[in-house]
Amino acid sequence: MKLTRNLYVIVTGIVAGSLILGGLAWSIGSGIGEGSHFAGHAQNEVPVALVCLVIAAVGVIWLGWYWLRLAGGITSIAKQLKQDIPAPVKPGGNAIINELIAVINERFGSCGDHNLALEKKVRDLHIQSQVSQMQKRNTEAIIYSIRDAVIVVDESDRLLVANEAAGELFNFDFRNSQHRAIGELIDPAKSEFADFLRQSRQGRVRHAKREIDFSKESESKTFDCIVSCVRDEKDQICGVVAVLHDITREKEISQMKNDFVSHVSHELKTPLASIMAYSEMLSDGEAEDEETRKEFYSVIQSQAQRLNRLIEDILNISRIESGLTKVDKKPVSLTILMEEQLPMIKGYAEEKNIEIVSQKPIVFDQVYADKDMLSQVVVNLLSNAVKYTPAGGSVRIETEVDGTAGIARVSVIDTGVGIPEDEVKNVFDKFYRVGANKSQAKGTGLGLSLVKQIVEKVHGGQVFVTSKPGVGSTFGFELPLATPETVEAA
User: Fold this and answer.
1) By the 8 A CB rule, do 16 and 58 touch?
2) What is the pTM of this model?
3) pLDDT single digits (tens) 184-242
4) Which of 33, 160, 393, 432 has the smallest C-beta neighbourhood within 10 Å, fewest atoms?
5) b or e along 119-129 (b: 16 or more beta carbons within 10 Å of the residue's beta carbon)?
6) What number of other Cβ atoms are within 10 A of residue 28's Cβ?
7) Distance CA 17, CA 2 (A)
């Protein structure tokens, strides 16, 4: 910098000196060249030209000095800006330059602080944007993973978010239906839900709950719909969230429990009523002779046995369903088992003039089973066949072995009243009784249900039934044949 300044001083001096010397040379040359004719004229012009040249030289020198001072000030400012430190004010320096340096330093300092603050805000906003995007993705992932139908609408009932379950329920593309009116997406047959959303938003309720029934392809489903209004920081409603939980199965189970209690209460009251009535007659002395007393005793005993069987059936089904029943499996011959249980049924069959037909024993028809439980299965099937067979009919027992499939099959075939086709699938349900046959015989509706539980849940077999009204029914079961491997594995 010093070299540049010195060079500039030398150049300025040379220019100023050249102007002065040039002026002097021009004045001398002009006086000699013009002669005496113009002597008077020259004497008048020369001093003026010389003064102008001298003034120009002085101006050049002053401009050079001022430019050097200005260049020095600008250089100092640039240096201070580059180093980002306050520029010292030189004593005796140019006041304008010093003031300019001070103003620039002040402005630059404030701009620097402002830029730093802006950069920090930009970084914070970028971080907040990334966090918001991540939270949005996490929220959407949570909503999409919920099995219940979830729908979120804004203050104008336009769809914001919905999951796959909602799309399936209302039959719309849940990913590409944002910002469409919810009323346009929902079928008019399900408009009750859209009305519920709108009413909840307009009523400004925080939470509302309603059961809504939807029908689809002759199938009705019940949903527990919970609606919550979303409020902003000004306590204004900015949207509504709805969750629809399918409670169809829960309502069916609840109804089954109610039916179970109702059936049990009814079945327990019937024998109890008989026992209490005949007991009161005995205590009141209405049985005057021994034969009447024996009749009363017989009724009380039979009703007590009926009550005991009902309680045992309920307890057995409950134990099997809960997995608490004790099972003692051993190799059992089905044919021999059937022969052992026939005497219990033949007396009842003879009273109704019903023939029991059995077959010759099969060489090998052993299954690996609990003998007592299987005996109960056989008794229930045989008694059920005799119960619903009119007098003069027959009940036939068949046992067969399928060696290829490794199973043994027992069939109980009767010539009874039969079962309507639309009710066949329900005969193994608890407390279910065929409506058309209720007048034929009394029952609890637990016998066949217990058969199904013992065969399928305890022994891994399968029950089956075929029937034709007015012709008869075939009830039976299949069990795996006993093999050395199954015996050893047990």
Assistant:
1) yes
2) 0.48
3) 888 888 888 888 888 888 888 788 889 888 877 667 889 999 998 888 878 888 888 99
4) 33
5) eeeeeeeeeee
6) 11
7) 22
349 close to 356: Cβ distance less than 8 angstroms: yes
Inform me whether the pLDDT recorded for 387 exceeds 90: no
Q: Which of 104-108, 273-277, 466-470 is least confident?
A: 104-108
Rounded to an integer, what distance in angstroms lies between the CA atom of residue 228 and that of residue 204?
9
Kindly list the strands in the beta sheet with 462-468, ordered across the sheet, starting from the edge strand earlier in the chain.
355-357, 394-402, 407-414, 472-480, 462-468
CB 404 within 8 A of CB 236: no
Cα gap 396→382, rounded to integer Å: 9
* Phi, psi dihedrals of residue 215, rounded to the nearest 5°: -110, 135
Residue closest to 4 by CA, chosen among 74, 58, 52: 74
Indicate the angle between helix axes 371-387 and 334-351, nearest 10 degrees.
Answer: 30
SS3 205: coil
- Tokens describing residue 17: 């000196």
DSSP per position, 404-416: TTTEEEEEEEE-S
Torsion of Cα atoms, 299 then 300 then 305 then 310, to 10°? 100
pLDDT digits (tens, 9 = 90+) for 445-477: 778 888 998 999 888 999 999 998 888 899 999
What's the full length of the chain, in residues?
490
Q: Comparing 2-11, 37-46, 380-389, which segment has the lowest mean pLDDT? A: 37-46
Backbone region of residue 445 per phi and psi (left: phi > 0; alpha: psi in -120 to 50; beta: other values): left
CA atoms in the 13 A half-sphere facing the CB of 99: 3
* CA 262/CA 255 separation, integer angstroms: 10
Sign, CA dihedral 435-437-440-444, equals negative
Give 121's contacts (C-beta < 8 A, 6+ positions apart).
none
Residue 412: per-residue pLDDT: 92
